[in-house]
Write a structure and sequence with these properties.
Blueprint: H1 17-20, H2 26-33, E1 39-43, H3 49-62, E2 71-75, H4 78-90, E3 97-100, H5 101-116, E4 123-124, H6 129-138, H7 145-160, H8 168-174, H9 183-200, E5 202-203, H10 205-218, H11 220-229, E6 232-235, H12 243-253, E7 259-263, H13 278-281, H14 283-286, E8 291-295, E9 297-298, H15 303-314, H16 319-322, E10 328-329, E11 338-344, H17 345-361, E12 369-373, H18 379-388, E13 393-395, H19 405-420, H20 433-441, H21 456-477, H22 483-496, E14 505-509, E15 518-523, H23 539-553, E16 556-567, E17 603-605, H24 607-611, H25 630-635, H26 647-664, H27 674-683, H28 688-692, H29 699-713
Parallel strand pairs: 1-7, 1-8, 2-3, 2-6, 4-5, 6-7, 9-10, 11-16, 11-17, 12-14, 12-15, 13-14, 15-16
Helix pairs in contact: 2-3, 5-10, 6-9, 8-9, 10-11, 10-12, 15-23, 17-18, 19-22, 20-21, 26-27
Amino acid sequence: MTAATHSTLFPQVPESADAVLDGLDPEQREVALALHGPVCVLAGAGTGKTRAITHRIAYGVRAGILQPGSVLAVTFTNRAAGEMRGRLRELGTAGVQARTFHSAALRQLQYFWPKVVGGDLPRLLERKIQLVAEAAARCRVRLDRNELRDVTGEIEWAKVTQTVPADYPAVVAKSVRDAPRDPAEIGQIYAMYEQLKRDRSVIDFEDVLLLTVGILQDRHDIADQIRGQYQHFVVDEYQDVSPLQQRLLDLWLGDRDSLCVVGDASQTIYSFTGATPDHLLNFRTRHPNATVVKLVRDYRSTPQVVHLANGLLSQARGRAAEHRLELVSQRDPGPDPGYTEYADEPAEAEGTARRIRDLIAAGVPAGEIAVLYRINAQSEVYEQALADAGVPYQLRGAERFFERQEVREAGIALRGAARAGSNDSLLDDAEDLPAQVRAVLSTKGWTTEPPAGSGAVRDRWESLAALVRLAEDFARARSGATLSDLVAELDERAAAQHAPTVQGVTLASLHAAKGLEWDAVFLVGLTEGMMPITYAKTDEQVEEERRLLYVGVTRARLHLALSWALSRSPGGRASRRPTRFLKGLRPGSGALGPSGAGGGGSVERGAAAVRRGRRGPVRCRVCGATLTEAGEMKLMRCEDCPSDMDEALYERLRDWRADQAKELGQPAYCVFTDKTLMAIAERMPSTDGELAGIAGVGVRKLDRFGADVLAICAGEEPGGGPGGADESDS
């Protein structure tokens, strides 16, 4: 773990503006000092971009160059905005606005609506899916739950790309976008949805941006008022800006150029929502005099993890790939990434759970471990496997920490105990602040030992345990702190959404993992059809899938495990292939050459595969690539590698097999499959050991058919009758 990650939760506020710059590397320091004109920060994963821009704001304010109230920092999630506010608070910088685009626009809209339109702002629609369902019903279009979600997403995309309902079909036809339903139908539903909103005087989140843009375009006096308040803008994750957000940013700026943007085109993974890296990539064209700083020192991940991440991008294509950043790890070496192949998905989940349990036993906290997958539907098998292994977990995307019922109840109880002070009998035997907190939270379900199993009871306990740990850290950092001090700290953290860590393995989709990091990351389900996902058809879509895997790899600080399963269920056909993105990177899959060398390590076989007798990767005897298809594994070569099969021998083996099958009254494949016969004809074994080394020739078949097969390979006539056959190759 990095020192930065595990510094105290309550650092000392820098004493001066110059002290704010302490600890920054040369490039981060350059960012912090670039306080005038347009600035573009190209920041790779793990390079400390949030540190750089928050120290930039703090230095500007502390040095008197920027007025706190004149700075507006915007990002894309409440969590990221909360983290930014928390860091600015730690740097002694109060009064700076750090918000999401939607939050900043909503605040302005609420303030100016009475002046521009009159009356109260229409009610904000928290979830639009129910209204979309009603719109579809009115259009006589039946949508199942998944289609409803997809159509809702299409409406959101149309709005952020400023596409009106009437234009939607034509815009989709011109783009490479695959609509989930007939575009004309979606256009109808979209139009009806907008009509229902008007009828009921409600607006959605996209309307917040659209209406703010409309007001700023039409009312120059209001635009001037906002520009008079905000003189300096910072935009984080700039590669994710949509056309509508860029339009709003342009209106906020006016003709000024006091703008700092931060982003990484290689982490553009939200194009389905309308995000585009074009604004980041075109920044220097729009602002020829911009200061450009590249952050490539990776403080998060070991050289082994960074090596794999760089290797992934070395194969990328397209405009974003042309601007990729070559990361340089600043950490000590660690273990190589691990690659594991499993027979089926349950075996992959069970194997992953066992490895996680071993990591926890070795001292890695459960909260520092994550299992990341492509789609949320993959989580269930991992939830079950972790529960069976007795490993606590949390699903990413649940409600925010301070909004959980148990956390709100705990806050009320702590506030009451703080007011009562020594009059509260609960605190009679509590000698210090942590003991007081434990005593109060024990009335809400906290115990010294966690409850057995998983589910809601365990989730509640984990939330309360996180508050206990926070109290312990607070007491160590603030000698003599009281319960009232802790309550004030909790209030500030709740306002900033600066939550403590819940101790459980994180289960999350790769999209939900963006912006997070863990000591150990398990990337699972890495097969063709899932990574890249089946519906990624165009080159652009496939490249975005590669970037998504890159984001997953760069979440890991120390331990990184990548795995895939050859079939969906036990006993299923082993027809899956590992993702193409690992070609040339995982051992045995060919070489990329010096510039794209892979991540080292070795391919292991999961437990289910070991039971079949495989104890290592099966490699092509021609090119050395790892084989995953059952047929290729029998041939011991890739399907498209040259064959040296003896055709005459193959035909003699087929004739012999037909005779055996006829006498047994079974299909020919029950003796040996075509692929097994091809493998025999290619390798021409001369001993029992050589024949047994061919996939599909098990011990029982060797006993029953071995002498005949070896005789045929030697050019002799087979002797003896059939000895029976298995129902399938063993």
